[in-house]
Amino acid sequence: MGKTNKTRRLPKSSATVAKDAPSIILINPQLGENIGMAARAMLNNALGSLRLVAPVHGWPNEHAIKPSAGAEVVLDAVQVFDNTKQAVADLSHVYATTARDRDMTKRVLTARAAANEMRCVIAVGGKPGMIFGRESWGLSNDDVALADTLVTIPMNPAFSSLNLAQAVLLMGYEWFQSGNKTEEVDTRIPKNTRLANKNELIGLFEHLEKELDNCGFLRPPEKRPTMVNNIRNIFQRTNMTEQEVRTFRGIISGLVRHHERK
Amino acid sequence: MGKTNKTRRLPKSSATVAKDAPSIILINPQLGENIGMAARAMLNNALGSLRLVAPVHGWPNEHAIKPSAGAEVVLDAVQVFDNTKQAVADLSHVYATTARDRDMTKRVLTARAAANEMRCVIAVGGKPGMIFGRESWGLSNDDVALADTLVTIPMNPAFSSLNLAQAVLLMGYEWFQSGNKTEEVDTRIPKNTRLANKNELIGLFEHLEKELDNCGFLRPPEKRPTMVNNIRNIFQRTNMTEQEVRTFRGIISGLVRHHERK
User: Fold this and answer.
1) In angstroms, what separates the C-alpha of B180 from chain A's closest C-alpha?
2) Which domains are present in chain B?
3) ipTM of the complex
4) Can you say whether the dihedral through the CA atoms of A222, A223, A229, A235 is positive or negative?
5) In this complex, which of B71, B113, B176 lies closest to A155 when CB atoms are compared?
6) B69–chain A nearest CA distance, Å
7) Alpha-carbon Rg of chain A, whole angstroms?
8) Residue pLDDT, tens place only, B159-189
9) Which of A117, A41, A72 is nearest to B155 (CA)?
10) pLDDT digits over A46-85, tens only?
11) Do B105 and A187 touch (CB under 8 A)?
12) Best to test chain B binding among A37, A44, A109, A247 (most B CBs inside 10 Å)
C-alpha cells in the first residue's frame, strides 16, 4: 500500500501531530512547492497524515522542502499511492473539496460543518480523509464518485479560486477550530498585576470626583449626578488593572499638584 | 491622506467587493509577492480596502501583480500611508493580529469572534480595520498600542507560524463566513431529477422484498420482519433521487431476468 519516504532534513520542528485526525490526500499534485505549502498548512493545524496519489514529478520532491517551512514531520511521513482507490482504501469517510458543480447526487457540507462531522466520525471509530484535486483541473468525476460528501468553502462567488495549499489551509483551519478550546473572548494582562476590583475602581471615581468638586468642574449642583455617572461610565468601559488604577490616580494627583503650584 | 495608485492591468476580474467591510492594513510589508497574495486572499473574501504603511519597496510594486491572481480591483484601490497613526485615523475600531505575547492589558478575541464583532461594529456605524505586522518581526508595541483589540488565530501551538498572506486569508475567511448564508448541510442533485419521496422508496422496498420472497432469501419466516427492516434501513440511508429509485428497480428486474433465463 503506502510507501513511506524520507526527505532531506530541515531545521528541526518538534511539533507533534494529532493521531486521530483526517488524512489529506492530494491527487496528482504537480508542483513540489504546493506539496510543501500544504504540509506547512497541515502542521499549523496539527494534521500529520499526507497522502499523494501519483504526484506528477514523483516523490520525494526537493522543491517541497523549503515551502514546508520546517514541517518535516509531515513530509517524512508522506505515503504515495498509485491511484485514488488505494489511497482511500482504509478510510471510512471521504470528503471531496470541489467548487465545480457535478451532475451527481451528493451531500454537500460547508468546510465548518465537515470539520465538525469528522470529529463525530472519529468519535465512533471512523477514519476520515479529504481529497483535493490537481492544481489545474481539480478532481475527476471518478474521484468524486469515491467520496461520501462534497465540501464547499464559502467564498466570494465572483472570485472564489484558491490555490491547493490555501484550500488545505482553510480545511485544516476548520478542523483545528472544531477541536480547539481557545476562549473566544479573553483579556491579556501583564504579569504582576490583575484586573481592578470594583472597590479600587470606586476609589478612583471618588478621588477624581473630589478633585473635580474642588476645581469647580461638577457644577451646577443639579447637573452633578448626571455628570458623575457619565464620567464613571467612561471608566467602566476601560477594564483597568489595579496597576492602571494606581497610574490614573497618580495622573489626577499630578495634574492637581501642577495646578496648585501655579 | 491615502494616495490611490494605479497598477498595471491584469486579466480582468469583474469581482466586486463589499462596501461596509473592514480595511486590511499591512505595516511595512517587505515583499510585493506577499502584498499580491494578500490582495488575492482579500478578494476571495470580498474585502476591497487594502492600506499599506510605508511598504519597504514602495508602491506600486510590480511583483504584487502576478501573485494577486487577478485581484486588480484590490491593487488598484491600494492606499499608502507614512505611518500607522495616519492609516487608522478614520477607523473606529482597530484589531491587531499578533501571536506574540505583549506585556500590555488588552482584550483578545479569536479570529472568529473578531469577525462577528466587526459585523456588529459596522451595524452601529463604526469602521473597523485589521493591522498586520511586517513579515519578519510582526507588529511593534507602538502599533499594538494603537489597537483596541488583539486577535489570535488558534493554531497548533508547536507550529503556529503563518506567512502574511495566510494570516490575511484566515482573517478574511472568518469575515466572509460571519456574513455568509451558505447552508451548512445541503444535497446536490442533478438537474431533471429530485429526491425520491417515501411512496417511491416504499415501492422499491416492496419490489425488492417480493423478489427476495420469490427466491427464498427471506427465510425462515420468523426472521423475515427483522431481515426486511435491516435491508430497508440500508436504503433509508441512501437518500436516493427518484431517478436512482428507478435505476435500482431496473437493477432488481435485471438480476431476476438473468436468474430466470438460467
Assistant:
1) 7
2) 3-178 (3.40.1280.10), 198-257 (1.10.8)
3) 0.86
4) negative
5) B176
6) 9
7) 29
8) 988 999 999 999 999 999 999 988 888 888 8
9) A41
10) 999 999 999 999 999 999 999 999 999 999 999 999 999 9
11) yes
12) A44
